[in-house]
Amino acid sequence: SATQGNLQELAGGNVVVGWGSRPFYSEFDRDGTLLYEATFTAGTSYRAYVLPWSASPATPPDAQLVEDGRSASVFASWNGATEVASWLLVTGPDEASAVEIARAPRERFETEIPIPAGATLGAYVGVRAMDAAGEVIGGGAAQIAAPEPSS
């Protein structure tokens, strides 16, 4: 790079290089192996850093109740939420009196929470997003899936 640029040492021994007037940044391990490289579509980057980041969306989590006649699951997701560690599935006559019937660790973008065999669903079915400490950080009601069109 002709101008600007930077190098950031990370706690684990890796380094991040901002290529300044070149629209790239890279991360290398302690042995110099390239782990990833990214490019900007135009312009320069001046500096590039890796920093802790978290987000909590302003909208509630999404949940979809899917039944196929043999089993049922709720699919939960919260687009943009970074702190979700697990999901609780709750049900009851209403949201205020809903109780937990299942729990599942977060998986990728969307988590399937199987409804336990023999569980009775109340008028309200919802999910609760939990952080790593087990605290509720968000919740939402599950929508009932539209029936599959018959062929």
Textual characterization of the structure:
This protein has a 4-stranded antiparallel sheet, with no helix packed on it. A 4-stranded mixed sheet has the order 9-6-5-12, with no helix packed on it. A 4-stranded antiparallel sheet has the order 8-7-10-11, with no helix packed on it. The protein has 2 domains: about 1-50, no CATH class; about 60-145, Immunoglobulin-like (Sandwich), CATH 2.60.40. The chain contains no helices and 12 strands. It is about 0% helix and about 40% strand. It is elongated and about 65 Å long. It has strands at about 5-10, 15-20, 25-30, 35-40, 60-65, 70-75, 85-90, 100-105, 110-115, 125-130, 135-140, 145. The mean pLDDT is about 90. The protein is mostly beta strands and about 150 residues long.
